[in-house]
Design brief:
The protein has helices spanning 67-76, 87-90, 96-104, 132-147, 168-176, 205-218, 243-255, 263-267; strands at 2-7, 26-27, 37-40, 43-46, 53-60, 81-85, 108-111, 158-159, 180-181, 226-231, 259-260. The protein is an alpha/beta fold. The chain has a single domain, classed as TIM Barrel (Alpha-Beta Barrel). Strands 1, 5, 6, 7, 10 and 11 form a 6-stranded parallel β-sheet that branches. Helix 1 packs parallel to helix 7 and helix 6 (205-218) packs parallel to helix 7. The protein starts with a strand and ends with a helix. The model is unreliable at 5-33 (pLDDT under 50).
């Protein structure tokens, strides 16, 4: 059973990404590594459900206060995570030691755009708001900043779009750069861990925890192949930090027999 946990560092707008419809289908893709994945508008939202493995994925843009706890807990559980950071995050000197540790410990480090660009409008048809040239220039800048941490370009194969929001054109443009779009598996509240207590859409850490456990219990495949999205930091507007429950969550899932793997390991099983 494979599970991918995705943690997002900062989502700047309310939970609009929840409105992106899922395609309840399987895709063979271009090779055997794509067999059995689930797609949403061309991006992979769940890996093969044949193995009890999970990938934890974190996105980051402006905050990182949960990083040390997250890495410590992954280490305790002999697990690997996947971290998708913007170029602005990667060049923030306050975050440099954290990114260096992520790379040193062998976690996946991937792009989340350079400037946290919104690719499609929240309302109406999902037409692309950027040109192909603008998209490529922004993403290439993000990729170069990842390479500065010693990650060869050939190892950067997966891209998690900013705001977790995209369309088929973005997927196609990413493919031109050798990148496969991935996104979170729906039906938990994990991607709400950035919401602040003063916001109408606030979701408590306990509610998030319970939604993940509930999904594991009620889905016929449990969390096999799951991509679980979390934020590595939520900023000063949220006191109820989910990383405080992250170790307990890993304890629970490990007790169920799950392994925590990188996104490339989840989607490219040996």
């Amino acid at each position: 059973m494979a599970v991918l946990v995705v943690a997002s560092l900062e989502l700047l707008l309310p939970l609009h990404g929840l409105g992106q419809p899922a395609v309840n289908g399987k895709a063979a893709g271009e090779g055997p590594e794509r067999v059995g994945v689930e797609l949403r508008e061309g991006g992979i939202i769940r890996g093969p459900t044949s193995a009890r493995r999970l990938a934890v994925v974190f996105t980051g843009h402006g905050f990182a206060e949960g990083g040390e706890v997250i890495l410590n807990e992954l280490g305790k559980h002999k697990g690997k995570g996947s971290f998708f950071f913007t170029g602005e995050f990667l060049t923030n000197t306050n975050f440099k030691p954290l990114v260096q540790r992520i790379a040193w410990e062998g976690h996946y480090l991937g792009p989340h755009s350079d400037k946290h660009v919104l690719y499609c409008p929240w309302e109406g048809p999902k037409k692309t708001l950027v040109t192909r040239a603008e998209f490529r220039a922004d993403l290439e800048s993000n990729l170069r900043k990842i390479e500065r941490f010693g990650i060869p370009r050939r190892q950067i194969r997966y891209f998690l779009p900013p705001y977790e929001y995209y369309n088929q054109e973005i997927v196609d443009w990413a493919k031109e750069l050798g990148l496969t779009v991935v996104n979170y598996t729906p039906d938990t509240r994990s991607n709400a861990d950035y919401t602040g207590e003063a916001e109408k859409n606030f979701v408590s850490s306990q509610t998030i925890f319970d939604s993940i456990v509930g999904k594991e219990r009620n889905d016929p495949n449990g969390l096999n192949g799951f991509i679980l999205l979390l934020h590595i930091g939520s900023g000063p507007d949220r006191a109820d930090k989910f990383p405080a429950l992250f170790g307990e969550l890993l304890d629970y899932l490990a007790g169920k027999g799950y392994q925590f793997v990188r996104v490339d390991e989840l989607l490219e099983p040996k």
